Amino acid sequence: MRHILLLRGINLGPSRRVPMADLRGLFGDAGYEGVRTYVQSGNVVLSAPAEPAELEAEAQRLISDRFGFEVPVVARSRDELAAVVALNPLEGVATNPKRYQVSFLSAELPADVVETLQAAAVGGEQLVAHGRELYAWHPDGVARSKMWNALAGKGLGAVATARNWTTVTTLLAMADE
Prior knowledge:
Blueprint: E1 2-7, H1 20-29, E2 33-38, E3 43-47, H2 52-67, E4 73-77, H3 78-87, E5 100-105, H4 111-119, E6 126-130, E7 133-137, H5 146-152, E8 160-164, H6 165-176
Antiparallel strand pairs: 1-3, 1-4, 2-3, 5-7, 5-8, 6-7
């Protein structure tokens, strides 16, 4: 079964560096097959008979043991990612895939947290919550977005890591190869 591992908070500065070649080697050496990475933000596609939750825990352990720091990991099966792409609730609104983000969550957020996030939207921004994903449209980018700051913060009550729409669809294509 193909899976996608999404690492949070690596390679953003001089610390918490994880070279993608080392990451591929780490998972390959651990017995996973078809290991591929995409860009430097920590996207791994691999084959494993395990469930996504098992992969999250195993990936976090492997990364901590190898690199010496904790990295939250959110995993989705290929079919789960395909459902995310198929839903695409902002398809008619989001016109720039680089400004259309999907936040992948470790758990579904309570309704009041989602409402708070939606209330932070300004200037045409939109947020749609569906299960363990948040679809966010930032027409002016994320640099000054209060909604983005809330999405990227640690106050959600769940691990979250975001990818732009181009990355999401590319990872699905990689999982299908």
